[in-house]
Amino acid sequence: MVKKFTFLCLLICGLLSLETCLPASEPEPPNVLIILLDDLGYSDLGCYGGEIRTPHIDRLSQQGLRFTQFYTSARCCPTRASLMTGLYPSLAGIGDFTRNKPHPSRGPGYIGRLNEACVTLAEALKPAGYQCYYVGKWHMHPKTGPIQRGFDEFFGYTRGHSHDQYDADYYIRLPEGRQKEIAVDSEKFYATDVFNDYALHFIREAQTKSPPWFLFLGHSSPHFPIQAPARRADAYEDIYRQGWDLLRTERFERMQELGLIDGPHWQLSPRSQVPVDGAAITNGFAGQKNPAWDSLAVDRQRDLARRMAVFAAMVESVDTGVGQIIDHLKKTKDLDNTLILLMSDNGACYEWGPFGFDGPSRKGTTVMRRDAELRETGGPGTYQSYGSGWANLGNTPFRMYKHFTHEGGLSSPLIAHWPDGINQTDRWVRDPAHVMDIMPTLLEITGTSYPSQRNGKRTQPLEGRSLLPTFQGTSGPTRSIGFDHQGARALRRGDWKIVWSKRTPTEVSWELYNLAKDRCEMQDLATTEPELLNELTNEWDRWARRVGVIWQQPPEK
After folding, report:
1. Rounded CA separation 418/454 (Å)
2. Across residues 185-202, what is the average pLDDT?
3. Is 556 helix (H, G, I), strand (E, B) or coil?
4. pLDDT band for position 19 (cuts 50, 70, 90)
5. Which terminus of the chain, N or C, has less C-beta within 10 A?
6. How far apart are CA 493 and CA 219, in angstroms?
7. pLDDT grade, residue 417 (50/70/90)?
């Protein structure tokens, strides 16, 4: 009996020794969740200084990273093209906007849809075994839609930049022939909520199959038309009746308290200029600064406060969905090995004047609601924006807005959450990054190679660079990043940035800023640093020619 016991002990010890000698198993590749908000301003989230309630997103940021210098391409579809492909927008085929037919004189960078030389995130990750899902706004042309470009399942819309959030029939399920799994009474349908529900549905579906999975949740909130159930907006109305001047100051102070603003090189800019455009759509303020809140009549203030309250309710509705997703991933023990990236596609949207508009973009007029009519704002069938005054609040402390290449147009929050892969969480990352960096980041963390060919043709080499070193607490080398959107131009090299504006009442010329000393672009150094200005403008010109930028836009036909 003693011999048998001794033998069993030796056998167990031998097996344990053998196990310790075996090589460690490769870590499982992470699941990937990208959450993209639409027209969210730099400081709208609570964790970036905003008064909008975003507790679930805030919790993600506290357990992850918050970037202070994350850049977009200034507008929705160029940013999406860059994010989806790891390229500058013009190299992906959407240099400025989607269009029904390619313009014959614009060149290959402006065909208005994804071209054949780019590879999407789904096309890159699917060969590595990823299940690929997309929910929400596509906006990279239906002819190059999500199913054609690598995604397995889709719910949302592929046509247009926005739509009525209450119009259930507009939102589609792809591939063709798929039935909508989530039944919502048409009177209760609200797209933001349904997008959240479909994100959870697709995650659950993916979890029944072999891991890993990739989900792109592209919300249309809070893009105009600003729409949200009235009861959700009610909670914000009194807050916004205080006005944009007071709230900009309060946001700036909170940003200091949070540590986002870390020195005197951040200054709260004056109220931004309303871009030059027709008097009807700029409410008569073209080329002037947004008006002081106290200068407005009480009825106008109340109408505007309700518009911003609806906008805030849209953002909070996205946050509610983020909370539902986090709770599910926790329960299923998938949260720690899921990389979550949350960002916006550009700065807050000024369209068109300080009072916003009612009716289709550029064709509507401004309506002022009073008394009981206020709660109709953002209801079914409405089509409204919140205007440049509130957009200026959204981009606190920066100048300008979406469409422009000043910091207010280009800068976005970026939150990265990945417990298994990010070191030193709950910190601000102050290195510049760009949406085109997402593709190389995902390729590196998943161990996936970038395809050299697509459908037998050579692919365009990547322009972005991986953020994995940033996740691990190190910085990459200095680089230059170019920008262009319909005549608004910029180039950032290290701490220096040049900017060319548009839609101004005076002649436009290049501006020069040292962002290390002047993050909010308040001191133009163009006249005091002429040699550096010339060097950087020449570099922008070389960049523009290399990536196929055409900055003189011909008239549409």
Report:
1. 30
2. 96
3. coil
4. very low
5. N
6. 32
7. very high
Which one from 76, 118, 349, 520 is the annotated catalytic residue? 76
Bridge partners of 497? 492, 513
* 164 has a pLDDT exceeding 50: yes
Strands (E), 365-443: 411-417, 427-429, 433-434
Neighbour-count burial for 256-271, b at 16+ CB within 10 Å, e otherwise: eebebbeeeebebbeb
Which pLDDT value is given to residue 104?
67
Does 10 map to a domain? no
Tell me the H-state helices in 129-217.
Answer: 191-207
**H or E element in which residue 20 lies:** helix 2-21
Segment holding 33, helix H or strand E: strand 31-37
Give the separation between CA 281 and CA 355, rounded to whole angstroms. Answer: 9
Letter string b/e over residues 383-408, b meaning 16 or more CB atoms within 10 A of that residue's CB: bbbbbbbbbbbbbbbbbbbbbbbbbb
Judge contact between 464 and 450, C-beta under 8 A: no
* Distance between CA atoms of residues 391 and 254, nearest Å: 18
Amino acid at 457: K
Collapse the DSSP code of 437 into the 3-class scheme (helix H, G, I; strand E, B; otherwise coil) and give the result.
helix
Told to judge if 139 belongs to the known catalytic residues of this protein, a careful annotator would answer: yes
Query: Does residue 392 fall inside a structural domain?
Result: yes
User: Identity (one letter) of the amino acid at 225?
Assistant: P
Confidence at residue 191, expressed as pLDDT on a 0 to 100 scale: 98
Q: Name the catalytic one among 56, 139, 141, 403.
A: 139
Determine phi and psi for 218, rounding to 5 degrees: -100, 90
H or E element in which residue 59 lies = helix 55-62
Express as a percent the part of the chain with pLDDT over 70: 94
CB of 154 within 8 A of CB of 135? yes
What's the domain count of the chain? 1
Q: Return the structure tokens found at 230.
A: 């009235």
Q: With bands split at pLDDT 50, 70 and 90, how would you rate the model's confidence at 25?
A: low
Rounded Cα distance between 484 and 490, Å, is 6
- Reported as a single tens digit per residue, the pLDDT across 448-497 is 999 999 999 999 999 999 999 999 999 888 999 999 999 999 999 999 99
List the one residue out of 478, 394, 374, 419 whose CA is nearest residue 52.
394
Specify whether the CB–CB gap between 75 and 427 falls below 8 A: no
Query: pLDDT tens for residues 343-399?
Result: 999 999 999 899 999 988 777 788 899 999 999 999 999 999 999 999 999 999 999
Q: What is the CATH number of the domain that holds 184?
A: 3.40.720.10
Spatial neighbors of 519 by CB under 8 A, at least 6 apart, are 265, 266, 407
Find all residues with CB under 8 Å of 159, minimum gap 6, and list them.
142
Q: 62: domain range?
A: 31-475
CA dist 298 and 303 (Å) reads 9
Q: Which residues contact 10 (CB under 8 A, 6 or more apart)?
A: none
Q: State how far the Cα of 368 lies from the Cα of 370, in Å rounded to an integer.
A: 7
Query: Domain for residue 416, yes or no?
Result: yes
What single-letter DSSP state applies at residue 375?
G
Residue 23 domain-assigned?
A: no
